[in-house]
Design brief:
The complex is a heterodimer of chains A (330) and B (239).
Chain A lengths: L14 H6 L1 H21 L7 H25 L8 H19 L3 H22 L5 H21 L1 H4 L5 E2 L7 H24 L1 H11 L1 H6 L4 H27 L1 E2 L6 H14 L5 H16 L6 H16 L3 H15 L1
Antiparallel strand pairs in A: 1-2
Helix pairs in contact in A: 2-8, 2-13, 3-8, 3-11, 3-12, 3-13, 4-5, 4-6, 4-11, 5-11, 8-9, 9-11, 12-13, 12-14, 12-15, 13-15
Chain B lengths: L3 E10 L2 E11 L4 E5 L6 H8 L7 E6 L2 E2 L5 H6 L2 E4 L11 H11 L4 H14 L15 H11 L7 E5 L7 H16 L3 E5 L3 H7 L2 E6 L2 E7 H5 L2 H8 L5
Helix pairs in contact in B: 3-4, 3-5
Classes of the chains: A mainly alpha (330), B alpha/beta (239).
Chain lengths: 330, 239
């Protein structure tokens, strides 16, 4: 028998192996995420208050951004500090196309996804060889440069006064279900990505780039692809938000917004599917409840991030999984 | 034509010449021991052969075609697989997924990759830990796992850097048996090890390096009885 004729099992893939792959683990997370999203979709049946529907819409905006950042940082290990910046780029892209060139909003949103994705691709190539604090600082610099450009290009963006953007529809419930639909679509897309070989490669890169390359993974291609996909999804969220709020300001790209996204992912559990989604709602709704205490709400979130990063590295999802395992054993 | 030709490879780090004109050929199906004292340039040479470092001089031919300067993933696709001295596995991924990464990256479809992973897990006796994350394995199990990764798709040449270092004798026997059987089937290896009994047992031929140079390339027993080799290892005490 030649070296290439390794003995194989005669049948299909061994069931034990299939159950043991990450596919099996992420299937449980996916089911939990879908169940949570169904609950979110049912909320308007009992909550009719426009203010709280608005809070939940913005929660979904952050859930999309957290999911996009989780793909890059949680699954690929690229700790970027620019997720809010890509949302801002998407928002300005559709806003400017609609106001300056008369592009229809739907086409503006598609263009925003492409422009944010392309910007992410370029940034991904630039920071390709950077890791850890160097990557974080470079992306933070990029984020601040982009925000300052938006803030100071008053002739184009109207700076801090904000750019008025045409709306898509006036119904808050309509917007609610647009965001539910987009969130569900991106969740399914992320799950499909993680189940594919691309998901394996991204996680391999997160764990050890050299070992991934040794195994035949094209590290440059997949890292760049993760940057572009994450940026495109963030741009999508930003573009939707622009038409929902009918206003775009440089505040969308504030580092505080990125801090919120990072805290949602850390509290939910980086590198898990359901955790950051649930945490996005918990954190944003909690931030609304704590609005009256002003700046102290940041103290609460910062403390939560420190506690989770120090004691519960797998976040809320890790805690829930651990509790389920203990319950099954008992 | 040799499967792998190493011709006059030079690698310098500042004032230090880590590899100094190393040359040798390896034919398909050979199992060659690469030995030498610490700091002799073995790992640097493997880094160059696996695309992790670029040589400052010389050339490497794989099947007669130059391959120096290619990236590790490009070399992996050409059949050059490397096992590291300091174990490199995907710690937050389980044993099966660690194997699947190489299988899928090197062109196997999902079902075929799973079958191969199962076969390797059985052969390397990792059944009990198949669903555990690699970071939860013992040092020896991690070595076995990385060893398995190199054979998810049978490579043209496997570069094994100290596979037996700090490994339990049972696991050493598993790896030794695997290497022996694959060698009998025609697999080509370069095996770096300080474990001379294993080198003698497994490798018909050995290349010895010292201070970046190849000092002898001959049948293993001849190499180990060579005065220069003894001098290199023992610093002249045996002379």
């Amino acid at each position: 028998m030649s070296a290439s004729e390794t003995p194989l099992h005669s049948g299909g893939a061994d069931k034990r192996s299939v159950a043991s792959t990450s596919t099996g683990k992420s299937a449980v997370e996916f089911r939990a995420a879908i169940a949570f999203l169904i609950v979110i979709a049912l909320i308007p049946a009992v909550v009719r208050n426009d203010y709280w529907l608005g809070v939940l819409i913005v929660s979904m905006y952050f859930a999309i951004l957290t999911g996009a950042w989780n793909l890059l940082a949680g699954y690929t290990g690229q700790f970027s500090l620019a997720p809010a910046t890509f949302a801002m780029i998407g928002a300005y892209a559709t806003g400017l196309l609609c106001t300056a060139f008369g592009v229809p909003p739907l086409l503006g949103i598609v263009a925003a996804i492409l422009i944010a994705g392309l910007t992410g691709l370029i940034l991904g190539r630039i920071v390709l060889r950077l890791t850890g604090p160097y990557l974080a600082l470079t992306t933070l610099s990029f984020a601040e440069i982009m925000r300052l450009v938006a803030s100071n290009s008053i002739d184009i963006t109207r700076g801090d006064l904000g750019l008025a953007v045409p709306g898509l529809l006036s119904s808050r419930i309509g917007w609610y279900y647009i965001f539910v639909g987009v969130l569900a679509f991106l969740l399914v897309a992320l799950y499909a990505l993680l189940r594919s070989k691309a998901g394996l490669f991204l996680q391999a890169i997160r764990d050890d780039e050299v070992a991934a390359a040794r195994s035949g993974v094209d590290v440059v291609f997949w890292k760049t692809a993760a940057f572009a996909l994450s940026a495109a999804a963030s741009g999508f969220a930003g573009a939707l938000y622009a038409h929902f709020a009918e206003l775009v300001t440089p505040e969308l790209g504030l580092i505080g917004q990125t801090g919120l996204i990072v805290s949602m992912a850390v509290i939910g559990g980086m590198g898990t599917l359901a955790g950051p989604l649930i945490a996005a709602f918990l954190v944003y709704v909690l931030s609304e409840w704590l609005r009256d205490v002003g700046g102290y709400q940041l103290v609460v979130f910062s403390a939560l991030v420190v506690i989770f990063a120090r004691f519960f590295r797998e976040g809320l999802w890790g805690l829930a999984r651990g509790a389920m395992q203990r319950w099954r054993r008992s | 034509m040799s499967l792998l030709s190493v011709r006059g490879i030079v690698k310098r780090y500042g004032g230090l010449t880590a590899v100094d004109g190393a040359s040798f050929d390896i034919d398909a199906g050979e199992l060659v021991g690469l030995i030498g004292p610490n700091g002799s340039g073995k790992t640097t040479l493997l880094n160059i052969l696996s695309g992790l470092a670029e040589p400052d001089g010389g050339e490497i031919l794989l099947d007669g075609a130059p391959c120096h300067g290619l990236k590790p993933e490009q070399l992996a696709h050409r059949g050059v697989m490397r096992m590291f001295q300091l174990t490199r596995v995907f710690r937050r991924m389980n044993v099966i997924d660690n194997l699947l990464v190489a299988g899928r990256a090197l062109g196997l479809d999902g079902a075929e990759a799973l079958n191969r992973a199962d076969t390797l897990i059985e052969e390397l006796r990792l059944d009990a830990v198949r669903a555990l994350d690699a970071g939860q394995l013992s040092g020896g199990q991690m070595k076995l796992l990385e060893f398995g990764v190199c054979f998810m798709v049978p490579p043209r040449i496997a570069l094994l850097d100290e596979p037996f270092a700090a490994v339990h004798p049972t696991m050493k026997e598993i790896m030794g048996g695997f290497i022996r059987s694959r060698h009998e089937q025609g697999q080509t290896f370069i095996l770096v090890s300080h474990d001379m009994p294993v080198i003698v047992e497994l490798c018909p031929r050995a290349v010895c390096m010292n201070a970046g140079k190849v000092i002898i390339d001959a049948p293993t027993r001849t190499v180990l009885s060579n005065a220069d080799v003894i001098e290199a290892y023992l610093g002249g005490q045996a002379a």
